[in-house]
């Protein structure tokens, strides 16, 4: 009986420590810049927030939406994940052949187009995320 109680207390303490460490990692986060770039009007807005260690871009975007005037809408495709529909009230359009694309700029200035969307992309520390409105 004493061994069982000791085991239960030890398990409970480990869970408490794990949850505390996990929550601490989430609340710390790494700074991230998110740039909304309209290539048709050559305008941009930069937002700064944090992203959890190994967190996805969508989480940072939701944090910005809750705290700033940043707004976005997505649609989810079960096989492919989330796609940006509009950012700050500007939607992509099949008729106008416009859309939003996700880009990432590394510390050395190299810009890439990730092969996944905002719901899956995990930026590295120091990357800048670019949401680019463009024609296709």
UniProtKB/TrEMBL annotation:
Endpoints of the signal sequence: 1-27
Q: Which InterPro entries match?
A: Cobalamin_Transport, Transcobalamin-like_C
GO molecular-function terms, A-Z: cobalamin binding
**Taxonomic superkingdom:** Eukaryota
Q: Name one GO biological process term.
A: cobalamin transport
By its UniProt entry, which Pfam families does this protein fall under?
Answer: DUF4430
All copies of domain Transcobalamin-like C-terminal, residue ranges: 64-135
**Keyword set, alphabetical order:** Signal
One GO cellular-component annotation of the UniProt record comes to: extracellular space
PANTHER family membership: TRANSCOBALAMIN II, TRANSCOBALAMIN-1/GASTRIC INTRINSIC FACTOR
Name assigned to this protein: Transcobalamin-like C-terminal domain-containing protein
The protein's organism comes out as Synaphobranchus kaupii (Kaup's arrowtooth eel)
């Amino acid at each position: 009986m004493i061994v069982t109680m000791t085991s239960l207390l030890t398990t409970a303490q480990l869970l408490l420590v794990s949850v505390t460490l996990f929550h601490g990692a989430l609340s710390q986060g790494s700074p991230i810049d998110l740039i909304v770039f309209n290539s048709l009007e050559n305008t941009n807005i930069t937002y700064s927030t944090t992203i959890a260690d190994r967190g996805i871009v969508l989480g940072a975007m939701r944090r910005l939406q809750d705290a700033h005037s940043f707004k976005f809408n997505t649609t989810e495709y079960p096989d492919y994940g989330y796609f940006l529909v509009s950012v700050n009230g500007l939607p992509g359009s099949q008729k106008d052949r416009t859309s939003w694309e996700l880009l990432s700029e590394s510390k050395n200035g190299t810009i890439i187009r990730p092969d996944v969307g905002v719901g899956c992309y995990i930026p590295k520390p120091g990357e800048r995320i670019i949401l680019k409105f463009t024609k296709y």
